[in-house]
Amino acid sequence: MPSNKNTTDRKLEAVPAAAASSNNKRKNVTRDDEDDSASDSGSDVSMINVDFDFYNLNPDVDQIAIKRLLRQTLSHDDELIDVHPLADLILSEGVRLGAGSSIKTDGEESDPWGLVAVVDIAQNRDNPAFKPFLTYLNSSLPSISPLKMLLDPSSSPAHASRPALIFSLRMLNLPLPLVPHLYRILLSELDTTVDAGGAKRDVPSFTDWIIWGRGYRLEGNEEGMGLDLHEVEGGSKKSKKKGGNAALPLAAGTFPYHPEEEFLDRVATHVHTYPFKTAPKRDEESFGVEQFGRLSLLTRAKLAKAVEDMQAACQ
């Protein structure tokens, strides 16, 4: 299987500078710089042309970036899990299953901006690289939960299933229209039972899909904190222009850090949120938003439907 998937679905050639800029390397980047006076006159968005390529997960290149993204998602609990063996397992599962992709902008040797990968829970339940993470997730679940039956089979030995755990890890400023393709490619690869050489592939028939991530909670009075992470109805975002009026308070509620996960939640069988175990106690002096972990449970058909809805919303 070739490393560069070089998908033809890369419809996004230009994105706002605020969405595309990062410390990572980029290739073929051009930018139309504008000074503050131009911004104040009503044109406050610069455009950057970026080439995004999809690659197979690469154990020789991607480990450091995956560890960083795992720590980001673990948030306050990042010291509870040894992310080094977990990153190795995620990459080795990508090779074994022939599934999972990363998005890069400077060739295969560069760091990924984001990735979607899958781990076969039944196959790796007792793997020392995975078991501590599985124990961590189980400890967040109530005794009666549909997720408990999948993550801890001892709670329901008669429950026949083949669950998969999806790791959707990415930088927050990865352009949203790219994300549905990561999921679409993953599902296509797991549905392919014959490799490029015509040999039969031993791909598990997963019955349940669990997506791990994190979320945040707003009280409704936050403003000026750079928190423009969730979209409002109609696809527009609340924003603050230079020289304009003060930013409106953000809507109160709980939200996933990745906006595309809202599409997953709409069709999910079950969504579970849990507080981070080592998060400091919050009071009136606490800075930033309250974060929490989250797990979404979907069937194969519902996951495919959510991906279709994501892609339609991004067109």
TrEMBL record:
**Source species, domain of life:** Eukaryota
Pfam families referenced in this protein's UniProt entry, alphabetically: BCCIP
**One GO cellular component from the entry?**
nucleus
Annotated region (Disordered) at: 1-42
UniProt lists the family membership as follows: Belongs to the BCP1 family.
PANTHER family in UniProt: BRCA2 AND CDKN1A INTERACTING PROTEIN, BRCA2 AND CDKN1A-INTERACTING PROTEIN
The protein, known as: Protein BCP1
